[in-house]
Amino acid sequence: MDEKDTNRLEAFSDGVFAVAITLLVLDIKLPYADSSGKLLGNSELWQAIFEQWPMLLAFVTSFFTIGIMWLNHHRIFKHIKHSDTSLVFLNIILLMLIVFIPVPTALLVEYITHPELNTAALLYSGTFFAMALCFNLLWRYASYKGRLLGQQVDMDGVNKISRQYLFGPLVYIIALAIAWINTPASLIFNLLLAIFFALPDTPMKPGKKDQDPQLPMSESV
Amino acid sequence: MDEKDTNRLEAFSDGVFAVAITLLVLDIKLPYADSSGKLLGNSELWQAIFEQWPMLLAFVTSFFTIGIMWLNHHRIFKHIKHSDTSLVFLNIILLMLIVFIPVPTALLVEYITHPELNTAALLYSGTFFAMALCFNLLWRYASYKGRLLGQQVDMDGVNKISRQYLFGPLVYIIALAIAWINTPASLIFNLLLAIFFALPDTPMKPGKKDQDPQLPMSESV
Amino acid sequence: MDEKDTNRLEAFSDGVFAVAITLLVLDIKLPYADSSGKLLGNSELWQAIFEQWPMLLAFVTSFFTIGIMWLNHHRIFKHIKHSDTSLVFLNIILLMLIVFIPVPTALLVEYITHPELNTAALLYSGTFFAMALCFNLLWRYASYKGRLLGQQVDMDGVNKISRQYLFGPLVYIIALAIAWINTPASLIFNLLLAIFFALPDTPMKPGKKDQDPQLPMSESV
Amino acid sequence: MDEKDTNRLEAFSDGVFAVAITLLVLDIKLPYADSSGKLLGNSELWQAIFEQWPMLLAFVTSFFTIGIMWLNHHRIFKHIKHSDTSLVFLNIILLMLIVFIPVPTALLVEYITHPELNTAALLYSGTFFAMALCFNLLWRYASYKGRLLGQQVDMDGVNKISRQYLFGPLVYIIALAIAWINTPASLIFNLLLAIFFALPDTPMKPGKKDQDPQLPMSESV
User: What is the rounded distance in angstroms from the CA atom of residue C176 to the CA atom of residue C174?
Assistant: First the structure.
């Protein structure tokens, strides 16, 4: 196997993903007192927590999305063996978009109950669309003529990613269109998208089990 | 030994555990001035710090719990050698619960001196119960028919974990029941639980020393 | 190849870079309500976001700068194989400057629209200048007579870095001079500097492709 | 060389150290407006920054101390090859004290200009003293009869650490005594202590260079 030159790049990226996904919790503040400062009773507190559903739904959606973006990063860097300045440059832009996610998330929480105002939802879905584009750019750059893939390329895996990445930006354009029309629907669509990409037996690993039923599914992630 | 495919998954998880456990400190604010803005004197400051015992006790309990959850994650991933999309999906849900811990912790701090209101304690213990369930699910999925364990399985270690994991959710159901009755008692029960799981010579590694007194106890963690 | 003694030093530094670059987002707060607490409409929100351009420009500049500083750290530690207490000491000072960046960044955001007041811009560019000096010191210390470089030194790579590092502090002195005269210009100059250092085919890796067109460009980062 | 079982324990600890050291910056807030909200002019801003010297001095001291504590952790885990539950337990307590440092740091900043009130300084130095004790406990536990050190022990290195660790808590008792008398003096003493432990050619690596002048100083950190 080729020696990998991207270990520290992956370690640094893992760190940024880990911090970004964890910072999402800083925006969750559950209420515990009414406007006069009196502690909420049991039923009032349950009700107050349930009223925070936009915050909790946005947290779950953004958390899953960053998690799946990490998975995608992991998937493509299994094939990328070498690094150059352009790759680091594209990776920094990608990480900047990941780190930015809490900002449109916080905005979306405020606007989710006002579906007639779609700016926040557009910004939220737009950030995800930009990320999908950036992943594409990074992958096309690294895989073009096998530029950074090393000597022993798993062509099957590489081609599979290249095919999938044709569709990634497309689904996020659909998310953008839904955001134009309806804010809560676009949030739920983004959540379903993240869950869909994370589910096993999606087009992400077609035929793997059929071909090699005995083998552990180590290549599938 | 099988090659491990889970290195980056573990590195990412370690990062999330590390950030989540450290962010707990952001909720500790010691007072230094009275309501008129005058700096507290020596004895007033000591008293003000001691009055923050709910905050400090909750910090210690949540810190130990996340630490022990990391240890559990480490223990089961010593046996898990391969990864697939379902495992990553379950791991993201588990990390989401870990990251969420500061939220019920902050709520508990407000309610600990009002034991007649048990909502916060239920949410706190409920989060831990959900984590225990999630650990079980992840472990059952990975170890079912040795699915993701690799060729050379340490069956003793695997069976030990499987047996222990029958009891994990049970003790957290007890914690939930205590939370229903008495908030401070449930916090202390959770702390004792974390310390118990961390102590050496618990059922976590029965007979290890007796079997191999010369060998370093490398398998015990 | 020499065994590396600097693995944990690099892992710790990667962690600090990753947290510092991610914390930059905590200073981005987009407005969503007017002074009377009323939610902003679509066009008002777009306008309010665009009015935050100093915040967003400063975020992008500091993010790229920390990213490129990480790249520099990575580049020089590819050659540094051993560690001693002085190296750790210099590395801590360097990390302290990295961690400090959000402070002058936040100050710059407030002063960018008041170009007649240059203190914030001087502090911002001054922090970068101190970082460039610190990188130089660390590199000169480690590479002096090959002190910490191990047995098999890539002399070409080492000499290239040493030549480049003559110019690093110089360009940041120019940035400092521009900060004296014009705040927004110095911010943009710093951003261009980061992009310039990140771009491929800069003097950072002269002649690499010409010498070895077949080889992957693994040494260039 | 023995295989190491402590890799993930070190990775997790590195993460906690990296986050804790970086979070220190969250307590640095430079002023930019006077009480009426007017932006400070050049000379006013410089003056306002210089007036924040307690905050900046405390930041530098705590940053160096956490950095040196990381170095100590790194040093002792170079010898510790195996892990058990007690070691993880002691390590969690140690990390809890590291994570706690921003709390007494923030308190100290408020009290540094009131040297007649020594509670904050005692809490600050007391935290460091507890850390020194905890390092001792962890090291004594791991090195007792070579319990967790593996087969090929570097006895010279082990004995050196054991000797040094007799003095560690002692110097922090002195720091505690100085804190009783004078707050700013104890802060500066703590800073000097960190710098002293970080300086090369301290008793930390006696005679290394004399014995093996050709060898890289890889063992010294």
Answer: 5
In a mutational test of the D interface, the residue from C14, C84, C151 whose CB has the highest number of chain D CBs within 10 Å is: C84
Model ipTM over 0.95 = no
- Domain containing C164 equals 12-24+52-204
Please give the single-letter amino acid code of residue A122.
Answer: L
Distances (CA, A) of D213 to C123, C144, D49, D207, D210: 43, 15, 46, 10, 6
Question: CA C15 → CA B58, C4, C99, D26, distances in Å?
Answer: 27, 19, 11, 17
Report the candidate in C132, C133, C23 with the shortest Cα–Cα distance to residue D25. C23
Beta bridge partner(s), residue C39: C33
Three-class HEC string of D173-191: HHHHHHHHHCHHHHHHHHH
Query: Per the domain annotation, does C117 fall within a domain?
Result: yes
D68/D193 Cα distance (integer angstroms): 10
Is D4 an interface residue toward C (CB < 8 Å)? Answer: no
Chain C residues near residue A16 by CB distance under 8 angstroms: 18, 21-22
For residues A197, A200, A205, A206, the Cα torsion angle rounded to the nearest 10 degrees is -110
CB contact under 8 A, C16 and D14: no
For B197, half-sphere exposure in the C-beta direction (CA atoms, 13 angstrom radius) is: 25
CA dist., res. D102 & res. B24, Å (int): 12
D194, closest residue in chain C (CA to CA): C89
pLDDT number for residue B221: 45
- Could you report the per-residue pLDDT of B139-177, keeping only the tens digit for each? 999 988 878 887 777 888 888 888 888 777 888 899 999
Place of tokens 């991933």: B77
- The answer to whether residues C184 and C115 touch, using CB atoms and an 8 Å cutoff, is yes
- φ, ψ dihedrals at D113, nearest 5°: -90, 10
Give the contacts of A23 (CB within 8 A, at least 6 positions apart): A102, B19, C22, C25, C26
| In-domain check, residue D20 | yes
The count of structural domains within chain D is 1
A5 CB neighbours in chain C (<8 A) are: 218, 221
Chain mean position to CA A219: 20
The structure tokens listed for C207 are 């002649």
**CA–CA min distance B216, chain A (Å):** 30
Residue matched to tokens 């573990």 = B10
Using DSSP's 3-state secondary structure scheme, residue D23 falls into: helix
Probe site for chain C from B8, B12, B19, B99 (most C CB atoms < 10 A): B19
Q: Is residue A178 a part of any domain in this protein?
A: yes
pLDDT at residue C62 above 90? yes
- Contact, B60 vs B128, CB < 8 A? no
Write down the pTM of the prediction: 0.89
**Helix C119-143 vs helix C183-198: crossing angle, to nearest 10:** 30
pLDDT per residue over A112-126, tens digit each? 888 888 899 999 999
Examine residue D216 and state whether it is found in any structural domain, yes or no. Answer: no
Is-contact D110 D28, C-beta < 8 A? no
Does residue B89 belong to the interface with chain A, where contact is any CB pair within 8 Å? yes
- Quote the CA–CA distance of B150 and A126 in Å, as a whole number: 41
